[in-house]
Amino acid sequence: MTLDPECIFCKIIEGQIPAEIIYRNENVVAFNDLNPQAPTHILIIPTLHAENAAAISAISPTIIAAMHRAADAIAAERGLTGYRSVFNTGADAGQSVFHAHLHLIGGRGLAWPPG
Ligand code: DGP
Fold first, then answer.
1. Is 41 tagged catalytic?
2. N or C: less crowded end of the chain, CB within 10 Å?
3. Are 44 and 30 contacting, i.e. CB atoms less than 8 angstroms apart?
4. CATH assignment of 8-106?
5. pLDDT truncated to tens, each residue of the chain (115 aa)?
6. E strand or H helix that includes residue 44
7. What confidence score (pLDDT) does residue 82 get?
8. CB atoms inside a 10 Å sphere around CB 2
9. Which 8-state DSSP code applies to residue 46?
10. Using CA atoms, how far apart are residues 2 and 48, in angstroms rounded to an integer?
11. Ligand 1 within 6 A of 88 CB?
12. Residue 113 CB-half CA count within 13 A
């Protein structure tokens, strides 16, 4: 499946619902998280619909790599000296939107382990 008409992130890709787009290319779209947990909290999503990172990895390792490259480029552009990249996979891990997305989180000190 390319895009899912019921998926909110697919609607952001299509411009059907608004988002603060930071970056886009043929493989990824990056936009500010609606509920930021840090000064920088950006979601980087593939431009095709897959429910989680494992699924997108199976479809296209190229796209997973593109997501990480976009995260690193955005972090560098913002001068972040460190950042966290997170994929929540499954409801038990806190995934609430079932379109793969990488959380790019930074701009403050980040504790470990996460909650
Ligand atoms: P997760 O819990 O890992 O599935 O993260 C989903 C994130 O998506 C959560 O941090 C809030 C964000 N989010 C949900 N709906 C929207 C939306 O419509 N617009 C934006 N910009 N972010 C959203």
1. no
2. C
3. yes
4. 3.30.428.10
5. 599 999 999 999 999 999 999 999 999 999 999 999 999 999 999 999 999 999 999 999 999 999 999 999 999 999 999 999 999 999 999 999 999 999 999 999 999 999 8
6. strand 40-46
7. 96
8. 8
9. E
10. 5
11. yes
12. 1
The confidence score (pLDDT) of residue 115 equals 80
Q: Are 50 and 56 in contact (CB under 8 A)?
A: yes
Under 8 Å between Cβ of 104 and 92: no
Atom of ligand 1 nearest to the CA of 8: 18
What's at 73, amino acid-wise?
Answer: A
> Between vectors from CA 47 to CA 43 and to CA 51, what angle results, nearest 5°?
70
95 lines ligand 1 (CB under 6 A): yes
Query: Do 52 and 44 meet the contact criterion of CB atoms below 8 Å apart?
Result: no
Residue 1: predicted pLDDT: 59
The answer to whether the pTM exceeds 0.85 is yes
Q: Which two tokens stand for residue 92?
A: 């038990």
